[in-house]
Amino acid sequence: MKYLSTSLILLALLATSCSRNHTGLEPIFNGKDLSGWSANVDACWQVKDGILHAVNDPDQKGDILQTEKSYKNFIVQADFKFGSGRIDTGIFLRDTKEQIQIGESGSLKRDMTALPYIPGKGYPIQVETGTKALKLDDWNTIKVQVIGNSYTTWLNGTEVMTYESETIIPEGPIGIQVHPKREMSVDFRNILAQELE
Fold first, then answer.
1. What CATH number corresponds to the domain at position 145?
2. Left, alpha or beta for 23 (phi > 0: left; psi -120 to 50: alpha)?
3. Strand partners, 103
4. pLDDT (tens digit, 9 = 90+) per residue, 68-110?
5. 186-102-81 Cα angle (round to 5)
6. Other CB atoms closer than 10 Å to residue 64's CB: what's the count?
7. pLDDT by residue (tens digit) across 1-51?
8. What residues make up the domain containing 41?
9. Eight-state DSSP code of residue 131
10. Could you give the number of structural domains in the chain?
11. Residue 170's pLDDT band (boundaries 50, 70, 90)?
């Protein structure tokens, strides 16, 4: 009976492990350092205890931390938690232009989390789904799926929007922003990605 109980426990652990890996998402941030990423302003990025702490540098230059790897079709997912200041960050899709906003829009002065921002077009989709799903004082999970010129976002499991872009480039890195000219800090953890066919 003892051996049967041990076998059942092992099978349960194996099943749990398999279900965790079922999504296909793999870590692209190791929680220890910035291996696999490149930064221009090192002062904006600190890694401690599995968390990427993004904070503006003393001169408020801001920065975009980018993966060294390029992606075509992919899913990227990350947990984030707002820190201090006026949070204006986001996930860049294949370049440093098109991004999915996290936090407040500097131009609109309101939260636009999980919505696209495109230079020259501003925010082409403005819905309140993300605002309703956002937890201001806790960890949030954002997921972005990019296939061809289409991207879809989810916030805390709620689908927010799908957008067809005429200007997104076909391949490039994934980026995380610290917006210049403002005091801000935000934490990220569990940064995952999956390449799609």
1. 2.60.120.560
2. alpha
3. 88
4. 999 999 999 999 999 999 999 999 999 999 999 999 998 899 9
5. 35
6. 21
7. 444 444 444 344 444 344 344 579 999 999 999 999 999 999 999 999 999
8. 26-195
9. H
10. 1
11. very high
Q: Please, what's the largest Cα pairwise distance for the chain? A: 69
Cα angle 80-70-40, degrees, rounded to a multiple of 5: 65
- Of the chain, the percentage scoring pLDDT greater than 70 comes to 89
Q: What is the dihedral of CA 13, 19, 22, 27, to 10 degrees?
A: -60
Residue (of 140, 117, 138) closest to 130 by Cα position: 140
Q: Is 130 a domain residue?
A: yes
Residue 66 scores a pLDDT above 90: yes
| Block residue for tokens 């749990």 | 16
Single-letter amino acid, residue 67: T
pTM of the complete model:
0.88
Give the DSSP letter string of 100-125: EEEEB-TTT-SB-TT-EEBTTTB-S-
